[in-house]
Hints:
- The chain is an alpha/beta fold.
- It has helices at residues 3-28, 60-72, 93-104, 131-142, 201-223, 245-253, 261-272, and strands at 45-50, 79-82, 110-113, 157-158, 172-176, 179-183, 228-233, 277-282, 294-297, 300-304, 308-314, 322-329.
- The chain has a single domain (46-329), classed as Purple Acid Phosphatase, chain A, domain 2 (4-Layer Sandwich).
Amino acid sequence: MGPRVIACLALGxxxxxxxxxxxxxxxxxxxxAEKAAPNHTSEHHEFGxxxxxxxxxxxxxxxxxxxxxxxxxxxxxxxxxTGIKAVEEPCSDRLYAKRRELLDxxxxxxxxxxxxxxxxxxxxxxxxxxxxxxLNRLRELLYxxxxxxxxxxxxxxxxxxxxxxxxxxxxxxxxxDEVLYATINLPANNNHYRPEAGRNSEFEDRLVANRFWLQRxxxxxxxxxxxxxxxxxxxxxxxxxxxxxxxxxxxxxSTKADGFEEPRRQIAALSAKFNGKVLLxxxxxxxxxxxxxxxxxxxxxxxxxxxxxxxxVVTPEREPMFTLQGAADEK
Length: 331
Protein backbone atom coordinates (compact mmCIF):
# COMPACT_ATOMS: atom_id res chain seq x y z
CA MET A 1 0.00 0.00 0.00
CA GLY A 2 1.52 3.30 -1.13
CA PRO A 3 2.05 6.40 1.06
CA ARG A 4 -0.69 8.28 -0.82
CA VAL A 5 -3.28 5.59 -0.03
CA ILE A 6 -2.27 5.44 3.64
CA ALA A 7 -2.56 9.23 3.95
CA CYS A 8 -6.04 9.18 2.40
CA LEU A 9 -7.20 6.47 4.79
CA ALA A 10 -5.86 8.38 7.77
CA LEU A 11 -7.58 11.57 6.64
CA GLY A 12 -10.87 9.68 6.19
CA UNK A 13 -10.63 8.29 9.71
CA UNK A 14 -10.11 11.77 11.12
CA UNK A 15 -13.10 13.15 9.24
CA UNK A 16 -15.39 10.32 10.38
CA UNK A 17 -14.26 10.26 14.01
CA UNK A 18 -16.41 13.21 15.26
CA UNK A 19 -19.56 11.74 13.72
CA UNK A 20 -18.91 8.34 15.28
CA UNK A 21 -18.15 9.84 18.68
CA UNK A 22 -21.30 11.98 18.48
CA UNK A 23 -23.36 8.91 17.67
CA UNK A 24 -21.85 7.06 20.61
CA UNK A 25 -22.64 9.94 22.98
CA UNK A 26 -26.23 10.12 21.75
CA UNK A 27 -26.87 6.42 22.10
CA UNK A 28 -25.28 6.39 25.56
CA UNK A 29 -27.96 8.77 26.90
CA UNK A 30 -30.45 6.72 28.96
CA UNK A 31 -34.11 6.98 27.89
CA UNK A 32 -35.14 7.89 31.43
CA ALA A 33 -33.10 11.09 31.28
CA GLU A 34 -35.18 12.47 28.43
CA LYS A 35 -38.33 12.78 30.55
CA ALA A 36 -38.39 12.91 34.34
CA ALA A 37 -40.98 10.72 36.01
CA PRO A 38 -43.82 12.69 37.64
CA ASN A 39 -44.28 12.62 41.40
CA HIS A 40 -47.86 11.40 41.06
CA THR A 41 -49.74 9.55 38.37
CA SER A 42 -52.38 11.35 36.35
CA GLU A 43 -54.93 8.81 37.58
CA HIS A 44 -55.00 9.67 41.27
CA HIS A 45 -53.23 10.92 44.37
CA GLU A 46 -54.05 10.89 48.09
CA PHE A 47 -53.79 13.37 50.94
CA GLY A 48 -54.47 13.27 54.67
CA UNK A 49 -56.25 15.66 57.01
CA UNK A 50 -55.79 15.53 60.79
CA UNK A 51 -58.50 17.35 62.72
CA UNK A 52 -57.97 19.27 65.95
CA UNK A 53 -56.08 16.82 68.19
CA UNK A 54 -56.05 19.18 71.19
CA UNK A 55 -59.57 18.76 72.51
CA UNK A 56 -61.15 17.32 75.65
CA UNK A 57 -59.11 15.58 78.31
CA UNK A 58 -55.91 13.65 77.79
CA UNK A 59 -52.73 14.38 75.91
CA UNK A 60 -53.33 16.20 72.67
CA UNK A 61 -49.65 15.95 71.85
CA UNK A 62 -49.78 12.15 72.05
CA UNK A 63 -52.91 12.11 69.85
CA UNK A 64 -51.22 14.30 67.26
CA UNK A 65 -48.06 12.20 67.26
CA UNK A 66 -50.05 9.00 66.79
CA UNK A 67 -52.06 10.55 63.95
CA UNK A 68 -48.85 11.67 62.21
CA UNK A 69 -47.35 8.20 62.63
CA UNK A 70 -50.48 6.61 61.16
CA UNK A 71 -50.45 8.97 58.18
CA UNK A 72 -46.76 8.24 57.60
CA UNK A 73 -47.62 4.65 56.68
CA UNK A 74 -49.72 5.74 53.69
CA UNK A 75 -48.45 7.02 50.33
CA UNK A 76 -49.79 10.54 50.81
CA UNK A 77 -48.85 13.61 48.78
CA UNK A 78 -49.23 15.75 51.94
CA UNK A 79 -50.98 16.01 55.31
CA UNK A 80 -52.91 19.06 56.59
CA UNK A 81 -52.91 19.46 60.39
CA THR A 82 -55.22 21.82 62.33
CA GLY A 83 -54.14 23.22 65.68
CA ILE A 84 -50.96 22.79 67.72
CA LYS A 85 -52.25 23.41 71.26
CA ALA A 86 -55.24 23.23 73.57
CA VAL A 87 -57.05 26.29 74.94
CA GLU A 88 -55.80 25.65 78.47
CA GLU A 89 -52.15 25.31 77.39
CA PRO A 90 -49.86 28.35 77.50
CA CYS A 91 -49.51 30.49 74.38
CA SER A 92 -45.75 30.49 74.80
CA ASP A 93 -42.90 30.57 72.31
CA ARG A 94 -41.50 27.49 74.00
CA LEU A 95 -44.65 25.46 73.38
CA TYR A 96 -44.95 26.72 69.80
CA ALA A 97 -41.34 25.67 69.10
CA LYS A 98 -41.84 22.27 70.71
CA ARG A 99 -44.89 21.52 68.58
CA ARG A 100 -43.09 22.68 65.45
CA GLU A 101 -40.35 20.14 66.13
CA LEU A 102 -42.99 17.41 66.43
CA LEU A 103 -44.53 18.37 63.09
CA ASP A 104 -41.16 18.72 61.38
CA UNK A 105 -40.29 15.13 62.32
CA UNK A 106 -43.23 13.77 60.28
CA UNK A 107 -42.31 11.69 57.24
CA UNK A 108 -44.86 13.30 54.93
CA UNK A 109 -45.04 16.99 53.97
CA UNK A 110 -47.11 18.76 56.65
CA UNK A 111 -49.12 21.95 56.16
CA UNK A 112 -50.25 23.53 59.46
CA UNK A 113 -53.57 25.30 59.73
CA UNK A 114 -53.78 27.62 62.78
CA UNK A 115 -56.72 27.07 65.12
CA UNK A 116 -58.51 29.50 67.43
CA UNK A 117 -56.86 27.86 70.45
CA UNK A 118 -53.42 28.59 68.96
CA UNK A 119 -53.81 32.37 68.94
CA UNK A 120 -57.25 34.03 68.94
CA UNK A 121 -58.16 32.72 72.40
CA UNK A 122 -54.81 33.65 73.96
CA UNK A 123 -54.75 36.10 76.86
CA UNK A 124 -51.98 37.91 78.69
CA UNK A 125 -51.27 37.86 82.43
CA UNK A 126 -53.87 40.60 82.96
CA UNK A 127 -56.56 38.49 81.30
CA UNK A 128 -56.79 40.67 78.19
CA UNK A 129 -56.77 39.34 74.65
CA UNK A 130 -53.29 38.82 73.30
CA UNK A 131 -54.43 37.47 69.93
CA UNK A 132 -52.67 39.75 67.39
CA UNK A 133 -49.27 39.49 69.08
CA UNK A 134 -49.52 35.70 69.43
CA LEU A 135 -50.63 35.27 65.82
CA ASN A 136 -47.63 37.26 64.61
CA ARG A 137 -45.30 35.16 66.75
CA LEU A 138 -46.91 31.96 65.49
CA ARG A 139 -46.28 33.14 61.93
CA GLU A 140 -42.61 33.74 62.69
CA LEU A 141 -42.11 30.30 64.22
CA LEU A 142 -44.29 28.09 62.00
CA TYR A 143 -44.27 29.78 58.60
CA UNK A 144 -40.84 31.33 57.92
CA UNK A 145 -40.01 29.31 54.77
CA UNK A 146 -41.82 28.92 51.42
CA UNK A 147 -42.22 25.20 52.02
CA UNK A 148 -44.03 22.72 54.22
CA UNK A 149 -42.86 21.14 57.44
CA UNK A 150 -41.97 17.46 57.57
CA UNK A 151 -38.95 15.42 56.50
CA UNK A 152 -40.00 15.68 52.85
CA UNK A 153 -40.70 19.27 51.90
CA UNK A 154 -43.46 20.51 49.61
CA UNK A 155 -43.01 23.88 47.92
CA UNK A 156 -45.72 26.35 48.93
CA UNK A 157 -46.71 29.83 47.81
CA UNK A 158 -47.56 32.08 50.75
CA UNK A 159 -49.79 35.13 50.63
CA UNK A 160 -46.98 36.94 52.44
CA UNK A 161 -45.03 36.90 49.15
CA UNK A 162 -47.36 39.75 48.14
CA UNK A 163 -45.96 42.99 49.62
CA UNK A 164 -49.49 44.20 50.39
CA UNK A 165 -50.13 41.20 52.65
CA UNK A 166 -46.69 40.54 54.08
CA UNK A 167 -48.07 39.36 57.43
CA UNK A 168 -50.34 36.57 56.16
CA UNK A 169 -47.85 33.71 55.88
CA UNK A 170 -50.38 31.14 57.13
CA UNK A 171 -52.41 31.41 53.90
CA UNK A 172 -50.70 29.15 51.36
CA UNK A 173 -51.47 27.35 48.12
CA UNK A 174 -49.89 24.44 46.25
CA UNK A 175 -50.78 22.13 43.38
CA UNK A 176 -50.89 18.37 42.87
CA ASP A 177 -51.84 17.11 39.41
CA GLU A 178 -54.76 19.27 38.23
CA VAL A 179 -55.99 20.23 41.70
CA LEU A 180 -55.21 23.50 43.48
CA TYR A 181 -55.00 23.27 47.28
CA ALA A 182 -55.01 26.19 49.71
CA THR A 183 -55.42 27.15 53.36
CA ILE A 184 -57.20 30.21 54.71
CA ASN A 185 -57.12 31.54 58.28
CA LEU A 186 -60.75 31.39 59.47
CA PRO A 187 -60.71 30.42 63.18
CA ALA A 188 -63.71 28.50 64.47
CA ASN A 189 -64.63 31.06 67.17
CA ASN A 190 -66.80 33.11 64.77
CA ASN A 191 -63.71 34.09 62.78
CA HIS A 192 -62.41 36.00 65.83
CA TYR A 193 -65.13 38.62 65.49
CA ARG A 194 -65.26 40.64 68.71
CA PRO A 195 -68.62 42.19 69.73
CA GLU A 196 -66.92 44.88 71.83
CA ALA A 197 -66.73 48.28 70.13
CA GLY A 198 -63.35 49.14 68.65
CA ARG A 199 -61.89 45.65 69.12
CA ASN A 200 -62.14 44.30 65.58
CA SER A 201 -59.07 45.70 63.83
CA GLU A 202 -57.46 42.26 63.50
CA PHE A 203 -60.68 40.75 62.18
CA GLU A 204 -61.21 43.57 59.68
CA ASP A 205 -57.64 43.51 58.38
CA ARG A 206 -57.73 39.73 57.96
CA LEU A 207 -61.11 40.03 56.22
CA VAL A 208 -59.48 42.21 53.57
CA ALA A 209 -56.52 39.83 53.20
CA ASN A 210 -58.80 36.79 52.92
CA ARG A 211 -60.98 38.56 50.35
CA PHE A 212 -57.96 39.13 48.09
CA TRP A 213 -56.71 35.60 48.78
CA LEU A 214 -59.96 33.99 47.64
CA GLN A 215 -60.05 36.15 44.53
CA ARG A 216 -56.51 35.10 43.68
CA UNK A 217 -57.17 31.39 44.24
CA UNK A 218 -60.26 31.25 42.05
CA UNK A 219 -58.61 33.38 39.35
CA UNK A 220 -55.64 31.02 39.31
CA UNK A 221 -57.87 27.94 39.22
CA UNK A 222 -59.78 29.36 36.23
CA UNK A 223 -56.66 30.53 34.40
CA UNK A 224 -54.83 27.21 34.83
CA UNK A 225 -58.01 25.24 34.05
CA UNK A 226 -57.83 23.33 37.31
CA UNK A 227 -60.30 20.50 37.74
CA UNK A 228 -60.80 21.37 41.41
CA UNK A 229 -59.97 23.79 44.20
CA UNK A 230 -59.72 22.40 47.76
CA UNK A 231 -59.82 24.96 50.57
CA UNK A 232 -58.87 24.10 54.18
CA UNK A 233 -60.00 26.16 57.18
CA UNK A 234 -60.70 25.54 60.85
CA UNK A 235 -64.04 27.34 60.90
CA UNK A 236 -67.08 26.16 58.95
CA UNK A 237 -68.32 29.07 56.83
CA UNK A 238 -71.52 27.08 56.05
CA UNK A 239 -71.27 27.83 52.35
CA UNK A 240 -73.77 25.09 51.47
CA UNK A 241 -76.33 26.97 53.55
CA UNK A 242 -75.79 30.23 51.67
CA UNK A 243 -79.15 31.99 51.47
CA UNK A 244 -80.43 34.66 49.14
CA UNK A 245 -83.29 37.11 48.77
CA UNK A 246 -85.48 38.01 51.73
CA UNK A 247 -83.95 35.30 53.98
CA UNK A 248 -80.50 36.80 53.47
CA UNK A 249 -81.79 40.26 54.37
CA UNK A 250 -83.23 38.88 57.60
CA UNK A 251 -79.91 37.22 58.41
CA UNK A 252 -77.99 40.46 57.92
CA UNK A 253 -80.50 42.33 60.07
CA SER A 254 -80.00 39.90 62.93
CA THR A 255 -78.43 41.33 66.08
CA LYS A 256 -75.98 38.40 66.22
CA ALA A 257 -72.97 39.27 64.08
CA ASP A 258 -71.74 36.48 61.82
CA GLY A 259 -67.98 36.56 61.35
CA PHE A 260 -68.23 34.17 58.39
CA GLU A 261 -70.84 36.11 56.40
CA GLU A 262 -68.47 37.75 53.92
CA PRO A 263 -66.28 34.70 53.11
CA ARG A 264 -69.43 32.56 52.86
CA ARG A 265 -71.02 34.86 50.26
CA GLN A 266 -67.74 35.27 48.40
CA ILE A 267 -67.03 31.53 48.18
CA ALA A 268 -70.57 30.83 46.96
CA ALA A 269 -70.33 33.54 44.28
CA LEU A 270 -66.87 32.54 43.06
CA SER A 271 -67.77 28.84 43.02
CA ALA A 272 -70.76 29.57 40.77
CA LYS A 273 -68.38 31.04 38.16
CA PHE A 274 -65.87 28.17 38.32
CA ASN A 275 -66.24 25.19 35.99
CA GLY A 276 -64.46 22.75 38.30
CA LYS A 277 -65.32 21.44 41.74
CA VAL A 278 -64.76 23.35 44.99
CA LEU A 279 -64.29 21.29 48.16
CA LEU A 280 -64.31 23.03 51.56
CA UNK A 281 -62.66 21.10 54.39
CA UNK A 282 -63.06 22.34 57.97
CA UNK A 283 -62.16 20.97 61.40
CA UNK A 284 -64.66 22.89 63.54
CA UNK A 285 -65.04 21.11 66.90
CA UNK A 286 -68.40 22.80 67.55
CA UNK A 287 -70.04 21.03 64.60
CA UNK A 288 -72.28 18.02 65.38
CA UNK A 289 -70.14 14.92 65.65
CA UNK A 290 -70.86 12.38 62.90
CA UNK A 291 -69.07 10.13 60.47
CA UNK A 292 -67.23 12.27 57.92
CA UNK A 293 -69.02 12.54 54.58
CA UNK A 294 -68.68 14.88 51.63
CA UNK A 295 -71.90 16.76 50.89
CA UNK A 296 -72.40 18.46 47.54
CA UNK A 297 -74.61 21.23 46.24
CA UNK A 298 -73.82 21.70 42.58
CA UNK A 299 -70.05 21.98 42.23
CA UNK A 300 -69.59 23.08 45.86
CA UNK A 301 -68.72 20.35 48.37
CA UNK A 302 -68.18 20.32 52.14
CA UNK A 303 -66.30 17.95 54.45
CA UNK A 304 -66.34 18.61 58.22
CA UNK A 305 -63.97 16.59 60.44
CA UNK A 306 -63.77 18.10 63.92
CA UNK A 307 -61.15 16.00 65.71
CA UNK A 308 -61.17 13.12 63.23
CA UNK A 309 -58.53 12.15 60.70
CA UNK A 310 -59.16 10.97 57.15
CA UNK A 311 -57.34 10.10 53.97
CA UNK A 312 -58.83 11.41 50.74
CA VAL A 313 -58.32 9.76 47.35
CA VAL A 314 -58.40 12.22 44.45
CA THR A 315 -59.11 11.07 40.88
CA PRO A 316 -59.20 14.30 38.83
CA GLU A 317 -60.42 12.67 35.62
CA ARG A 318 -63.12 10.43 37.10
CA GLU A 319 -66.24 10.60 39.26
CA PRO A 320 -66.47 10.78 42.15
CA MET A 321 -63.40 12.96 42.17
CA PHE A 322 -63.01 12.82 45.97
CA THR A 323 -63.54 9.69 48.08
CA LEU A 324 -62.76 9.09 51.74
CA GLN A 325 -60.33 6.26 52.39
CA GLY A 326 -60.92 5.99 56.12
CA ALA A 327 -61.76 8.02 59.20
CA ALA A 328 -60.54 7.78 62.77
CA ASP A 329 -61.45 9.87 65.80
CA GLU A 330 -58.29 10.83 67.64
CA LYS A 331 -59.44 9.91 71.13
